[in-house]
Amino acid sequence: MQRPVAIAVVVLSLVCFVLVAAGIAAEQDAGTGSIRGTISGVPCAEDVLVYIEKAPGEYPPPEEPAEMDQVKLEFVPHVLPIVKGTAVRFHNHDPVSHNITWPACCNGAYPSYSLGMWDQGIVKKFTYNEEGKITLLCKIHPRMEAFIIVLQNPFFGLTGKDGTYEIREVPPGEYSLKTLCCKSCRRLEPKVAKVTVAAGSVTVQDFSP
Ligand SMILES: [Cu+2]
C-alpha cells in the first residue's frame, strides 16, 4: 500500500470509529432523561441526598465495591448512597486505629454491629443487602459520624456545596422524588415531589422548606 493511501485508510477508520462511538452514546442517552435542581433555604445544602424512592424493575448492585475511607479522624465521604446488595470497602488512612460500629436500625434489617478495631492500611468489607439508613460511628472517636444510605435503585444524586444535584440516565416515567438531609439539618422533614421524566429531556425539581 502506498503511504498516502495508508494514511487515508487510517484516518477514515478513525472517523468511522468516532461516529460509531458517538452513535452508541446518543442511543444510550436517547432512551432516558435526567433530573436536576437546587436545594435552598436549609442550614446545610451540601450532601443532601435526592433519590427516586421506587423505580420499576430490579437493579443489581455494581460489581465494584463502594469505598468508605477514614482520613484525619473523619469518614470520607460523609454520605454514601448505594444500591441494595452493594459491598462497601472500609479503609483506614490514619496512623491510629478505628473501630466502626452502627446501632440497630431500619426496622430490624440491620442489628447493631461492629467491624472491630483495625489499623492503618487494612481494608474491611461489608455487603448491605437491605434498604435503610445506617449511621456509622467510631467507638474510639465519638465525633466521627457518617451515613450509608441503601436504596432500591441507582437513580440518586448528592448536592454539592452550591446545593445543586443531578440524576442522570433515568428511565422515562412518573416517580416520587425524595430528599434526605444527613448533616446539621438532618432533623428537617424529608421533602417529596412527584416528577415526570421523559426521554431525552431534563426535569427540573427544586426543593425549599
Ligand atoms: Cu475512629
Count of runs of 4 or more consecutive helical residues: 1
Give the strand tally: 16
Rounded to an integer in angstroms, the radius of gyration calculated over CA atoms is 22 Å
Q: Give the ordered list of helices and strands.
A: HEEEEEEEEEEEEEEEE
Range of strand content: 35-45%
**Overall geometry:** globular
What are the segments in which pLDDT stays under 50 over at least 5 consecutive residues? Answer: 14-28
Structural class: mainly beta
Helicity range? 10-25%
User: Describe the biggest sheet?
Assistant: 5 strands, mixed
Q: Look at the structure and give the mean pLDDT.
A: 87
The ligands found in this model are: copper (II) ion
How far from one another are the termini?
A: 70 Å
Strand order of the largest sheet: 5-11-10-7-8
In short:
With 209 residues, the chain is mainly beta. The chain has 1 helix and 16 strands. Helices cover 13% and strands 41% of the residues.
Question: What this model shows, in words?
Answer:
It contains one helix and 16 strands. The chain is mainly beta and 209 residues long. The strands form four sheets. A five-stranded mixed beta sheet has the order 5-11-10-7-8, with no helix packed on it. A four-stranded antiparallel beta sheet has the order 12-2-14-15, with no helix packed on it. A four-stranded mixed beta sheet has the order 4-3-6-9, with no helix packed on it. It is globular. The site of copper (II) ion (CU) has 5 residues, from loops.
